[in-house]
Design brief:
Among the domains are: 99 residues, Cobalt-precorrin-4 Transmethylase, domain 1, CATH 3.40.1010; 67 residues, OB fold (Dihydrolipoamide Acetyltransferase, E2P), CATH 2.40.50; 85 residues, OB fold (Dihydrolipoamide Acetyltransferase, E2P) (Beta Barrel); 72 residues, Beta Barrel (OB fold (Dihydrolipoamide Acetyltransferase, E2P)); 95 residues, OB fold (Dihydrolipoamide Acetyltransferase, E2P). Helices cover 30% and strands 30% of the residues. It is built from 18 helices and 32 strands. Helix 6 packs parallel to helix 7 and helix 8 packs parallel to helix 9. The longest helix has 19 residues. It is elongated and about 130 Å long. It starts with a strand and ends with a helix.
Length: 656
């Protein structure tokens, strides 16, 4: 006789989470009330009832001091609001995958979309989903009901539609329904919300049932997903749905050559073990030929392999089958449900589970603790990564290898960088190329560093980013000197300012722009022209390779105000000028930035004045004529009086 147990049989992620939540509340001395059955398994519910858990139909039935638990199927939004109105202490055990559907339909309804739900209208999960949809909503459980909706209700084919499915909906039925939706509605948004564990369990059971004479499906008769498994298997072979080992059809099993076993998402490991134990005893009492499992060896060995305890610190290989914001559900090929809390996924506390893993990823993990009674295993990826990565980090100190990591924290005295799952402390003095650089700028950035100190007994390592930066700058400097020549242009970043100029990082080496090279006009400080962090284009004015000094030019010849004056302001030009200064012999006026001209006191007015202030004041804008330019001495003469002379001459000619 060959007996095969489906790998995915038993508690799913959401159910296990809900049961664990109730158990934790009981352990903390809480009086627990579940809003409806926490899961659809009578044996589990009976066990919880013995421990004091009470099932209620409404929040109003919960007495003062009690804690109400929202079941894994979720509830309507109005029920949640009522719980809060009554100010009840509550824990929400809604399966994260179900909660996701709640968010989808709620958003769709607000956007004016009509929601279609594939599922059983009488199932609490579907009722909860419907209760989060404020707009038009229709439910269908098969292609016939969907066809009725498309033909007689939602006849507008271009209407915006949002389609979701109950997490335990039949995969094959869903695929058939999608064909209709895609064909009929041109504006449909479809969300495949069937739980991965459900899809995997159904496909695995379908394949197994094709290879067996009899399938045993273990689970509550009120469980939707268990009923789906029975239907899937029943299409291929004789299938029995049982809740406990007492219901095993032993007479029928005795005639079978190949038996397959699977279990619903609400079936605890203890019941699966009870069924397997009963079958083991039954097989031992039967003919010797029935004890041989043709494909997998002796049935007792298979049972031992299926249910063997996993020891703490043992390494296991698992596949990710579910992800929530706080934990990851992993199939490790045993009856126990594997969990990795978010804190045990990575040494980086800032990352989210979905940033690290995705459904289907295969992981090597370390067992932290097991709970055979509840059938769960707590796992760690972070600790195994650190154990593997430590050897790499320790070796890096000896061979001076450069490691790559991400800065996850800025702490007192430095930063923490994670590489190969190992936290490395980098002191502030070794974190940046300059002590003035901000450590905060490194947060969440990828950095390269060397290991400069290792404490093997305490598994602590100290790194240096500066060491790598220093080598990189040295290499860049060598390349710079190979190609540097006077007149060559570079783009650099202003690194620092002094009273006499600005230092610019050219990439591995610094050059200086003297203050006189920053502007054609006079400035008192470089900050009047540029600031630290500015990207500037400069050219080399002078090189001293022996001393490693580079003089840079910044102002351009085409920006020379005297060249602009020569081109745009020839002698005879009338311009608007601004009075910028006064003397006893005249006034100075700004023609263009960088060039001031003198208006002699005799050229300010057409009559004699004692001093320039009699006619002008600083900041006055007046029209003046350029009467003379001395480019060698950099002098310009201006005249206001000259603008009135032609008019006077004209008047004299008229009188003659």
């Amino acid at each position: 006789m060959k007996v095969t147990v489906a790998k995915s049989a038993g508690f799913c992620f959401g159910v296990d989470r809900a049961v664990n939540m109730v158990n934790e509340l009981l352990e903390n001395g809480k009086s627990v009330y579940t809003l409806g059955p926490i899961i659809h398994n009578p044996q589990t519910l009976k066990d919880l009832e013995k421990r004091g858990v009470v099932v209620v139909d409404s929040p109003e039935q919960v007495p003062a001091g009690g804690t109400i638990v929202i079941r894994s199927h979720g509830v309507e939004q109005s029920v949640l609001e009522r719980v809060k109105e009554l100010q009840l202490d509550y824990s929400d055990a809604t399966c994260p995958f179900v909660a996701k559907i709640h968010r989808i339909v709620s958003k769709a309804a607000k956007e004016g979309k009509t929601v279609l739900i594939a599922g059983d209208a009488n199932h609490p999960e579907v009722q909860g989903i419907r209760g989060h949809c404020d707009g038009a909503c229709y439910i269908f459980k098969n292609t016939e009901e969907l066809q009725n909706i498309t033909d007689n209700i939602l006849t507008e084919k271009d209407k915006p539609i949002c389609v979701v499915a109950q997490t335990t909906f039949s995969v094959s039925e869903w695929e058939n329904c999608l064909k209709i939706i895609k064909r009929v509605y041109t504006n449909a948004t479809i969300f495949d919300t069937i739980c991965n564990a459900t899809a995997k369990r159904q496909s695995e059971s379908a394949l197994l049932s094709q290879q067996c004479d009899i399938m045993i499906v273990i689970g509550g008769k009120q469980s939707s997903n268990t009923a789906k498994l029975r239907d899937v298997c029943g299409q291929n072979c004789t299938t029995y749905l049982i809740e406990t080992a007492d219901e095993l059809p032993l007479a029928a099993l005795k005639k079978a050559d190949c038996i397959g076993i699977t279990a619903g998402a609400s079936t605890p490991a203890s019941i699966i073990k009870e069924v397997l134990d009963t079958m083991s005893e039954f097989i031992e009492g039967a003919d010797q030929n029935l004890t041989e499992n043709n494909a997998e060896g002796n049935f007792e060995e298979m049972l031992e392999e299926s249910l063997k305890s996993l020891n703490t610190d043992e390494k296991v290989h698992g596949v990710v089958v579910g992800i929530t914001p706080s934990e990851v559900y992993v199939d490790v090929g045993r009856k126990q449900a594997g969990f990795i809390s978010a804190s045990e996924l990575s040494a980086d506390p800032n990352v989210k589970p979905e940033d690290i893993v995705k459904i289907g990823d295969e992981l090597d993990l370390l067992i932290m603790r097991t709970n055979d009674q509840e059938g769960t295993i707590m796992l760690s990826k972070k600790r195994l990564d650190a154990a593997k990565g430590w050897e790499t980090v320790a070796a890096a100190e000896e061979n001076e290898a450069v490691l790559t990591g991400v800065v996850t924290e800025v702490i007192k005295g430095g930063v923490i960088a994670v590489t190969n799952g190992v936290r490395v402390f980098i002191p502030a003095s070794q974190a940046t190329s300059s002590r003035s650089d901000s450590l905060e700028d490194l947060l969440k950035k990828e950095v390269k560093f060397r290991i400069i100190e290792v404490n093997r007994s305490r598994r602590r390592a100290v790194g240096s980013i500066r060491s790598v930066l220093k080598d990189a700058r040295k290499e860049q400097a060598e390349k710079f000197w190979e190609t540097a020549e006077e007149g060559k242009e570079y783009t650099g970043v202003v690194k620092s300012l002094t009273a006499y100029g600005a230092f610019v990082d050219l990439g591995g080496i610094d050059g200086m722009i003297h203050i006189s090279e920053l502007s054609w006009g006079r400035i008192k400080h470089p900050s009047e022209v540029i600031n630290v962090g500015d990207t500037v284009t400069v050219y080399i004015k002078g090189l001293d390779k022996e001393k490693g000094k580079i003089s840079l030019g910044y102002k351009r010849a085409e920006d020379n105000p005297w060249e602009i004056l020569k081109r745009d302001y020839p002698v005879g030009t009338v311009a608007d000028v601004t009075i910028v200064g006064m003397t006893a012999f005249g006034a100075f006026a700004r023609i263009i930035p960088g060039i001031d001209g003198l208006i002699h006191i005799s050229q300010i007015a057409d009559h004699r004045i004692e001093k320039p202030q009699d006619v002008l004041k600083v900041n006055d804008v007046v029209k003046a004529k350029i009467t003379e330019i001395d480019f060698d001495k950099k002098r310009v003469s201006l005249s206001i009086r000259a603008l009135s002379e032609p008019e006077e001459a004209t008047e004299e000619n008229t009188e003659e």
